[in-house]
Structure of Response regulator receiver protein:
Amino acid sequence: MNNGCFETLLASVPRLTSGQRQALLRALMSETAAGGPDPVSTCGDGGAAHSGPAESLSVRGLVIDPARHEARVEGRAVELSRTQFRLLHFLAAHRHRVVTRDELIRGVWGPRAYLESRTVDAHVRRLRQALRPAGYDRMIRTVRGVGYHLDSSRAEKEAA
């Protein structure tokens, strides 16, 4: 399919906003250019990549355990939704660099998700709120115009 076919197809879906159409068009074009995944293999999980049981990640006392689907600070569980957990895990797995909003969309929601980049901002805000009681909300640093970075040097706990 070429770009014109995608645009015609997307124009026929009346409930999508122009931003959603653009995001979906980008996702479809990138999948086509890369050979794209098998639509059946990503059905049901949002298209997010899963590579079996992942190891726990630890960042300044914050332990993220994908096998148990939990985050803990000093042994105490941090209440996170499924999306918040996946977002935190993705940021922690890529903590040595800035992660763009598009990378977060593909990594957390999957390559077939058509979310606007501002939706990511709302989810990050809620993740920060969930981490605030434990003092870890400042670890998620916004890089204006680019995305986010999990900066372990900004944890509130280190100041204590």
